[in-house]
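Entry 14. Ran structure prediction on the chain below.
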Amino acid sequence: MTIPLVTDDLAADLAERVLDLAESAHREDGVAPLSEHTVLRVRHGSPDGSSRFHVLTDGDRVVGFGFVERVSGEPDSGEIVVDPAHRGRGHGAALLRSLREDASPDGVRVWAHGRTEAAVALVEGAGWRTVRELHKMRMPLRDITADEPGGPWTAPELPETRLRPEIAAKVEIRPFVVGSDEDRWLATNARAFADHPEQGQLTLDDLLQREAEDWFDPHGFFLAVAKDGTVAGFHWTKVHSDGAGLTDGQPVGEVYVVGVDPDWQGTGLGKALTLAGLHHLQDAGLPWVHLYVDGDNRAAVGLYEALGFALWDTDVMYAPA
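Output, structure tokens:
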């Protein structure tokens, strides 16, 4: 098939073949071609029909796949992956063209994860331009020796987790409670990321899907809960059992998402929550922690650099010129 099948619903067997394709590309390129959000959409679909799937097949084999998520008032956000054994045959260009022709009235943008040569050549060759950069930063949680991946590197000393006294009197930092905290967390997440086209749109179904994942651990999901029961801020950590490209299979941590309600910004709560999560990951004996941060968020980048994080890689989002 040289013209992609475009659908908002993937059959279970087709979804499995798409995930097999993504895994093959991951092994070949050393970087996952599909985000966690996309993988969950492939597995579970989208209850509101906001997902669009573009599938290229050769017989029973899926040789190319494209995905977009639609959010009202925003360009579609997409990703593309082509089977390593079927590259150089125009499949990437066909998928890119399909995403553009099927786009919402607000247009479409596509991520190039890790800026692999093939992905960059595809989108830039089509005349698309960079519109967003997502930096990937890393920091050792213990000293890394010269014979370990990424070494040698001396781990910085993490400051203690401290709230200003007037803030400590108003909030309690505690772990997330499954079955109790979902709605209050969703409300704060929506407020904290009101201008974020992806994170701010998470629904209860999205949260429950993540709770069902093997990596989910409520003990690493920290909430700052105010006296009235609302969530003032949070730090959700994640452990990657496969090493996330930082080790040869030894688990590593991630600052999955940190958010502070607008009414609590400027109180130091974000830094305190970040440190609470970092200490949790360090106490678990993990060698590394990484995170993603928008390249133009200088305040957040500065905070992470001050803690000891350094730039590791960058995902780039492209849009038609």
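The CA atoms of residues 205 and 307 lie 34 Å apart. Will compare against last week's run tomorrow.
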